[in-house]
Every structure is written in structure tokens, then in C-alpha cells.
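Regression test case RT-17, inverse folding.

Input:
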């Protein structure tokens, strides 16, 4: 997996980025806080456990660094080992000392497409479906695939975040997103080219999370009640 990186780029990681970058995770359900990024490195994105950065002189590489005491590094390395090379996924080029160097994927997340009013063609959804099926054939379990973790680039679909693909518990986020795409986005939003405010998108996201948590709680409650011999269903 470890491939040769440009020596100045690798030196900048070890001599500038790692010693000076300041990130912390306050709540595992919220994106991490990035307190300081050393120049000339640029922050590209941040998730609940890690930050993704790039060097302007080497724009086709990104470095993913996990926040202190947050899990997932070893698992993500294993996921990329199994995925190998696939056009809809990034590729791990280097993994040492708690960070990964990945091939950079260019595009716009479906979440941002909704905000910008960019049309999302069916091919994007089909590409992501095919990529997730490929991942399953490699012994992985596509998990936490939602609008912020998938992108569109030149009319094709990409999967950005695979860090949870070793989690075996069922996850319906992608199935639900596809359902919303075919039932609501295509017939209603797409023809109107509406730009959805981030506030509305965040509201939908929070409502979905609340509904998912309620469903999980009720299902757990049902099975607990069912286990009591005094309750017969």
C-alpha cells in the first residue's frame, strides 16, 4: 500500500504538518475542531474523527489525520487495502504514524449540490450503487453513506468516506437517500432547480437523525418487552 511520495511533500508532512497541526474532538457526534493549520497547508474537510488537508504544491494528494484518542485509523487502512483501486473510491498511497495519504477526489458533495441547485443525474446514483456493491464483494459493509460522503464530478458518482466500512451493523442511510432522490428530488426539486438553504438541509438532517434514533429505541424496547414471559405477542 505504501507508495513512493515526492520527498519534499513527505518531508513537509513530518516536519511542518504533524508537529504544528492542532485538532481536537469535543463531541464524537460533531465535526472535530481545527484550531491551527500550519502554512502552507490548507484544510480541505473535517469529519467527526479526522481532518483532511492538502499542500498547494501537491494538490492531488490529501492527508487524513485522526484527532487524538479517536478510533478508526487502523480500520480505515484495512478498508483501503481491501478496496484497492476503483474509479469511484480514493486510494491509500501511504499509511504510517497514524495518518493516511490518499489520492484526492475532486467534485461536489450531493449535500452541496442541493444547496447550489446543481442537477444530480441518475448516473451519479448508479455509479455509487455500483461502487458500494463492489465494496461488498471485497468483504466490506458500506456504512454511513449519506449526502456529505458522496460526490458528483463531471456527471459521475464518487464515494468519499469509507472509514466505517468494517462496521457490520445494518445502515439504511444510502437506501433512504436513494428513496428521497427518486421519490422527491427527481420529480419535484430537480425540475425547479431550487437552491436549498443550508439551514433547511441541516434541519432535514437533524430530523432524520432524530427519527432514526426513535426507531432504534422503539425496536429495542419491543424486543425487551417481548423477552418477558408475561408479554405475549
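Golden output:
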Amino acid at each position: 500500500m505504501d507508495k513512493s511520495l515526492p520527498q519534499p511533500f513527505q518531508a513537509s508532512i513530518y516536519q511542518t504538518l504533524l508537529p504544528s497541526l492542532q485538532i481536537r474532538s469535543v463531541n464524537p457526534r460533531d465535526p472535530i475542531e481545527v484550531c491551527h493549520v500550519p502554512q502552507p497547508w490548507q484544510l480541505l474537510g473535517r469529519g467527526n474523527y479526522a481532518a483532511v488537508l492538502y499542500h498547494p504544491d501537491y494538490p492531488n494528494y490529501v492527508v487524513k489525520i485522526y484527532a487524538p484518542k479517536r478510533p478508526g485509523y487502523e480500520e480505515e487502512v484495512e478498508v483501503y487495502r481491501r478496496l484497492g483501486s476503483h474509479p469511484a473510491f480514493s486510494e491509500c498511497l501511504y499509511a504510517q504514524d497514524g495518518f493516511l495519504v490518499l489520492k484526492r477526489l475532486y467534485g461536489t458533495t450531493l449535500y452541496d449540490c442541493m444547496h447550489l441547485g446543481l442537477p444530480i443525474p441518475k448516473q451519479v446514483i448508479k455509479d455509487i450503487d455500483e461502487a458500494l456493491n463492489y465494496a461488498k464483494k471485497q468483504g466490506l459493509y458500506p456504512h454511513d453513506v449519506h449526502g456529505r460522503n458522496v460526490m458528483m464530478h463531471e456527471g459521475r458518482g464518487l464515494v468519499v468516506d469509507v472509514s466505517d466500512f468494517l462496521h457490520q451493523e445494518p445502515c439504511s442511510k444510502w437506501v433512504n437517500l436513494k428513496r428521497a432522490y427518486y421519490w422527491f428530488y427527481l420529480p419535484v426539486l430537480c425540475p425547479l432547480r431550487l437552491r436549498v438553504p443550508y439551514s433547511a438541509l441541516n434541519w432535514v438532517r437533524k430530523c432524520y437523525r432524530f427519527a432514526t434514533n426513535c426507531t432504534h429505541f422503539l425496536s429495542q424496547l419491543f424486543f425487551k418487552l417481548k423477552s418477558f414471559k408475561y408479554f405475549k405477542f
